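Module 6 notes. Inverse folding takes a fixed backbone as the condition and produces residue identities as the prediction. Think of it as a translation problem where the source language is geometry and the target language is the twenty amino acids. Below is one complete input and output pair. Work through it position by position during the lab.
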């Protein structure tokens, strides 16, 4: 099973890359997680110049970049605060079902303003990590850790106790 994380943002701190890589190196090749970084759209530094229309335009441009990287044969899962919350056990069950169906996955994470409506509408599922607003760099590590934890459940590894 191949899982790709398509996430807006590049040039993140080293601790993010190190944390993400720590979990992906623990996964077997048969259950891989790959990161595909999507460049963020430039935002004005002056908050007074940021309007709802500009935010919508920024999300649409980022959404176009995300969707251009999505594999049409993969199940598309959008990470969105309004999505359905999954426990680790639910994630493990879902991943097992996708694997049994021979389905690879593209997980999409938007920029600071979230995902475009087009991304949300094209998604097969919407998953909420938390009702809290999480920093986007931290989301990458949380996803990698949860996928590793879900895999450990599937393989009866003691990591998930």
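Target side of the pair, the amino acids:
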């Amino acid at each position: 099973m191949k899982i790709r994380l398509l996430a807006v943002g590049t040039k993140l701190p080293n601790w993010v890359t190190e944390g993400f890589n720590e979990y992906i190196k623990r996964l077997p090749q048969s259950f891989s997680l790959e990161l595909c970084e999507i460049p963020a759209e430039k935002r004005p530094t002056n908050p007074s110049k940021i309007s709802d229309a500009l935010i919508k335009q920024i999300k649409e441009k980022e959404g176009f970049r995300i969707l251009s990287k999505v594999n049409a044969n993969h199940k598309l899962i959008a990470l969105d605060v309004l999505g359905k919350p999954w426990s680790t056990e639910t994630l493990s069950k879902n991943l097992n079902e996708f694997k049994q169906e021979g389905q690879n996955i593209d997980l999409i994470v938007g920029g600071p303003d979230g995902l475009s409506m087009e991304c949300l509408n094209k998604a097969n599922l919407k998953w909420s990590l938390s009702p809290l607003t999480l920093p986007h760099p931290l989301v990458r590590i949380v996803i990698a850790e949860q996928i590793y934890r879900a895999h450990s459940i599937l393989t009866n590894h003691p990591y998930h106790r």
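Reference fact for the lab report: The CA atoms of residues 70 and 147 lie 19 Å apart.
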